[in-house]
From TrEMBL:
Keywords: Metal-binding, Signal. Residues 1-22 form the signal peptide. Gene3D superfamilies: Bacterial extracellular solute-binding protein, family 7, Periplasmic binding protein-like II. The lineage of its organism: Bacteria, Pseudomonadati, Deferribacterota, Deferribacteres, Deferribacterales. Substrate binds at residues 150, 171, 208, 234. It comes from Flexistipes sinusarabici. Transmembrane segments: none annotated. Na(+) binds at residue 209. Pfam families: DctP (PF03480). GO terms for molecular function: metal ion binding. It comes from the Bacteria. GO terms for cellular component: tripartite ATP-independent periplasmic transporter complex. This is ABC transporter substrate-binding protein. The keyword Signal applies.
Amino acid sequence: MKKLALILSIAFMLSTAITTFAAEKKTYNWRLVTTWSTSIPFYETAQHFAETVDKLSEGQLKIKVYPAGAIVPAFQIFDAVRNGVAQMGHDWPGYWKGKEEAFVAFASVPFGMNSIEYSMWLQHEGMDLAREVYGKFGLVPLMGGNPGQEIGFYTKKPVNSVAEMGKMKIRTVGWAADILEKMGVSISPVPGGETYLALERGVVDGAEFSTPSATYPLGFQEVAKNVIVPGWYQTSCQNMFMVNEKAYNELPDHLKYILEIASRETQWWSMAEREYENAVAIVNYKKEGVSFNKLDDESLNKLRETTKNYLDSLRKKDALLDKVLTSQEDLIQLYSNWKKVKSGVSAYPYEDYINGMHLE
């Protein structure tokens, strides 16, 4: 009996090992849907991620990237991933505001963190909170890249104050739209693809869309030669991947780890690649005669105050949003100690520095 028991035990262990080996060698073919057209640089970010996963997994996990509309329209990808139509999605989480307000905090917060600070926060506490938010919908989140700060509002005439904006009709969306409306600005939420024509035909007097490199190909500068800066409403633009939880759980552990590593690599790749392209775009804007008009300090202070009051009102109604924003504020407070100490040595050209340009 002992010999039989030993034989059965060995057979069970061999069977388990064979099953595990087969799972580890199985090839997985996934679909990744995005909210981007192929002309938007963020689509390239999704492709970079998929290529990285393919190389790290030696072809065991293959992810095919689809632009908006190829499988489902842009704003249906959340439900497509949730319902298993695709295994993954890539987006700006603020699009899912109607499902849970806290998603916006993983996208962009007015007067919030820059791309480095977002990455720091996600690495230390943010991803735990993201798993809590996404987990409510049967999804697993992964970092999806951060292309930097948005450029600002394009206008035909120079504008330096919110008071001047109060006489205009502005295209923007999300929290920024609500904040500006509270300050007396008329808002028109024109779809991104229709913004050029709206500016050209005077349907709106000013419009924002995205970062310098993402907006430049859209040609706003052809019909509006002024930009109101800085992009206070999106001080950085965090993108995220979401994975269908069932599909994720079917992966062997080493492939789950590869997804995690590829997402972190993509986060930093995106920051470096997009910020470089943002700088190139600014040079091109200047060549085309675009002027950058800074908001006065009074306007920025009023915007900051209105933003705080607005977010405070949202937080009273949504405990999860309050939890996420509190965590971000803790990081901002912590990092501010180092920011103050290290300030004054920003890498500007020699002549600029000598003439007083010490701070970003």
